[in-house]
Amino acid sequence: MILVRVEDRSGVLQRVTNCLARRGFHLLSCSVGQGPKPGLLCLWLRVGTGPQPPDQVIKQLSKLIDVVSVEDRTETDPMEWVTALVEIRRDGDEMELEAALQEPGVQVVRRLKDSVLAAVAGTPEQVEVRLGQLRRLPVSDWVLGRPLALGEGGAGQAAAVGNRQVSGS
Amino acid sequence: MCATALLGFDDNQREPAPARRCGAEILLRALEAEGVEVIFGLPGGANLPIYQYLPGSPIRHILVRHEQGAAHMADGYARASGRVGVCLATSGPGALNLVTGLATAHFDSVPVVAITGQVATPTIGTDAFQESDVIGATMSVTKHSYQVHDARDLEAVVHEAFHVARTGRPGAVLIDIPKDVQQQIVEGEPAQITRLRPHREPPAPSQELLMAAARSLAGARRPMILAGRGVAIAQAQAALLALAEHIDAPVGTTLLGTGVFPSSHPLALGLVGFMGTGYCNLAVSNCDCLLMVGMRADDRVTCRLDGFAPRAEHIIHVNIDPAELGKTLAADCQIAADAGWTLEALIKETPERRHPTWRRQVDEWRDRHPLRYPHNGRLQPQEVLAACYAHRLPTDIVVADVGLNQIWAATSWTGDEAGTFLNSGGAGTMGFALPAALGAQAADPGRRVWAICGEGGFVMTLQELATAVEAGLPVKVVILNNGQLGMVRQFQDDFYGGVRSEIEHSVIPNFQLLGSAFGCFSVAVTCQAELGEALEAAMAHPGPALVECRIDPEANVYPIVPFGGGLADFMECPST
Ligand SMILES: Cc1ncc(C[n+]2csc(CCOP(=O)(O)OP(=O)(O)O)c2C)c(N)n1
Description:
The structure holds two protein chains of two kinds. Chain A contains four helices and eleven strands; from the N terminus they run E-H-E-E-H-E-E-H-E-E-H-E-E-E-E. By secondary structure, chain A is of the alpha+beta class.
């Protein structure tokens, strides 16, 4: 998980995603939010680096002029929140469906004639477990949102760019 | 930049600036304040307001024949002068024609600012006539780009663009200006520069890291230095020479580093890598400590990465761009800093050393693997280059194109004057040499500038001969005409089963007539005996000159490392 603070200018997301794509990195998730500092956006990124050294993501993003800071937050465990929407048909076991809708983190959004639309919210792990349970029911459609993250105030590890000694000499 | 200029006062007359100025005027004043002397450009619908005000500016405009030429000229100007090169194009096709040139400059860390006209703001996004998303198209070949939506921002944007282009690892920056913004009237004093986003320096390397590097160099019995263009950018040639002599380490250079170490020095090993000298590649393959300074560890340098410097117990990699450290090569000591600063620090921290055994070994490799070429009665490119280099003054600038001609020009290089050999290394852009030479010539009319080309690369941008004549840029173009895309032909011969496919130029212009058609002096050379006279005549001619040398079509570059091989696996000239 990487926290990137960028200047809130038009085209800045394109610069970030272009940088990742150009370097052959895979953007697994990206949540964008207005951080507490005016004029700055916070991007929380999960990035797959493939064969490239993982620190290249931080180093390459750090080179963008609109990027103010890049922090590796993998260790500091930022708060993440995910929402999913699930549509469940009512042609299955009604009792089982109602029980599932009572589970914590599950909320009924709308009841339709043939189906129920439910929202599932929680940490990514919680939502994964809950979705696993719901999928035993006759699910006709579902969508899983990208995580929102918060950790702005936490003590992030400043991205270590450049100078280092890899093994003692 | 002077403060009075910023405030809108003419420096000499101290008169208040006109209260109403349009975006185009603001742009030109900002460029003047940045010390821009020359712009390479071509007008079109979306930059005409700038051209309307250009005649009133002291900045010289050189009218190119193709925008790619403008970008290469700005690049050549910057490489030769160390200042920021500027090019100007219209929107759509004009802007897109810059892309190859910007990529070429950016790849080689050359500070260039490109200014493009854009369709008027209200029509952006409507597929208006000659609209193109030049910001999107150039995003991966520029350090940064701006689209200016308000003429009041122009001055600050120009200054920030120059700042970004030249600081840290230099590169290309684009400023896209919609036509209505060029015409927008700004009342009153121009806005003060609100801020320049500072270049973010990586934290200075710690003393421990420097000491570790110094200890590795001091403890080495077979030290070796490789140097790249970063040494030239940092103007650290003297420090490189001092450190090499101090620790008695042979020095190889990258293609872009050609010239950063005096070729006549006993420690000089010439070009490293894929088509490097055998002795340099052997020295890298056998050294026990390798210092790589001001260079990337790219595939043309390392060849097979796991076979690179296999006996080195320590590799010290110095680059101002932290992202270049550990990107491909995991050096054990990674220093993100200016090459000059680091070399000076290492001289201070490292005790003097002598390595007679290692030096003898390297000299033996030099004797055993000299650069060889066949003597078959045909004109050899190495003979042409030796004659050119013998005729040149030490301060002459040589710009090589891309292909075999480039490698011959680099490996035959003799010169002790820093920054006199230029070429497109990272991008390897054919057609670079002529326009880049024109840019270098514009930077310094007092120097002689040579362009060394193959006939394939030359014809890619030959229209700029018109620019050369028109702008009075007397470059001397040497065409190594082998009648084919020589480097491709050699790759096909050596690595692709000998299948010669689409490399033959059955139609080659008559270069004497072609040169004359543009008003250039031109001469053809078919044998070694004619070389001296032809070069003298070209040099004596006050304007641009073409010297076409009909070289052995089968001439190759050797040594060469087979694809997939390590540096020590180089193949040598088979006929000797
Ligand atoms: C714009 C561009 N297109 C294609 C290539 C690939 N390429 C590299 S060298 C070369 C042949 C160059 O031929 P020529 O200019 O005649 O020079 P020579 O190798 O014969 O000296 C080619 C096609 C390139 N580097 N640049």
